[in-house]
Amino acid sequence: MDAAAVIAAHAALGYGGKSVLDGLEFEIPPGSRVGVLGPNGGGKTTLFRALLGEISPLAGSLEVTASISTVAQTDRSRLDYPVSALDVAVMGSLAGMPWWKRPGRAEKRRASEALEKVGLTEQAKSSFGDLSGGQRQRVLIARALTAEAEILLMDEPFTGLDNKSEARLESLIDELARSGQTVMIATHEVEQASRWDLVLCLNRTQISFGRPEEALSKPVLEATYGGHIVEIPGQPDLGVLPAHHHHHD
Ligand SMILES: Nc1ncnc2c1ncn2[C@@H]1O[C@H](COP(=O)(O)OP(=O)(O)O)[C@@H](O)[C@H]1O
Ligand SMILES: [Mg+2]
Question: What pTM, to 2 d.p., does this model score?
């Protein structure tokens, strides 16, 4: 196995010295699709913030061995000024450039390749604000790819997507993982996560981690979601699925 992309050892995370998530103990191999499951307030976003280096562990260690980027939530309200899909994708290269340089031909080519990878070549010149939610999300993935991030964090990327965009994003995640990208996805959809390589169940503490067939049992889901679970008929193996959470951070 390749060296792990992310290693957590006895890690605890929190704010102002107060832990909100502890017992983190996992290793994520590169090229994995990892479903991060948990109720609202369970600690998913806190884990992502720690992986991005925005907060430091209160205890233990959280090691990120590759370049990492988050795929931002798409928010139309911040898009009053006209930028094209290509402009947004090009922005990914800015972090790695000296302040006095402007993106040139090489950066634009990388951004075009990234747009091609997410299936948006035809929309390159479209105004970002005019794209659908699913398309904007894919542009933001392209921006992360342009930044050459090896680990991509997606915090509830399926919220608000229609079925078609959801299917499209799922296959894009599959494709990214096949090409070696590690993708960690916070989601409320247990069934979806059960199709990925690894799951990490969080509820203020790590409830379980591993391959879905081992790490997703009825007791695990009960500990993860507490009382918020419903039985799913015809799913005897999984047994339970969380009631759909509708929320917007
Ligand atoms: N900036 C913050 N300061 C203090 N507490 C926070 C902050 N951000 C989140 N929390 C708390 O940390 C806990 C985990 O939140 P979060 O990581 O956002 O969970 P999730 O993303 O799974 O919904 C919650 O109790 C939340 O109130
Ligand atoms: Mg969150």
Answer: 0.89
Does the CB atom of residue 180 touch ligand 1 within 6 A?
A: no
Ligand 1 site, residue 40, Cβ cutoff 6 A: yes
Same domain, yes or no, for 85 and 161?
no
* Model confidence pLDDT, tens digit, residues 104-142: 898 999 999 999 999 999 999 999 989 988 899 999 999
The ligand placed nearest to the CA atom of residue 159 is 2
Q: Is the CB of 224 under 6 A from ligand 1?
A: no
**Cα-to-centroid distance, 48 and ligand 2 (Å):** 9
Q: Mention every residue, 6+ apart, whose C-beta is less than 8 A from residue 138.
A: 118, 119, 120, 168, 169, 172
Check if 15 has its Cβ closer than 6 Å to any atom of ligand 1. yes
Ligand nearest to the CA of 249: 2
**What CATH number has the domain bearing residue 204?**
3.40.50.300
Lowest mean pLDDT among 7-11, 28-32, 234-238: 234-238
Give dist(CA 175, CA 10) in Å, integer: 32
Instruction: Calculate what percentage of the chain has a pLDDT beyond 70.
Output: 87
Domain end point (choices 91, 121, 148): 148
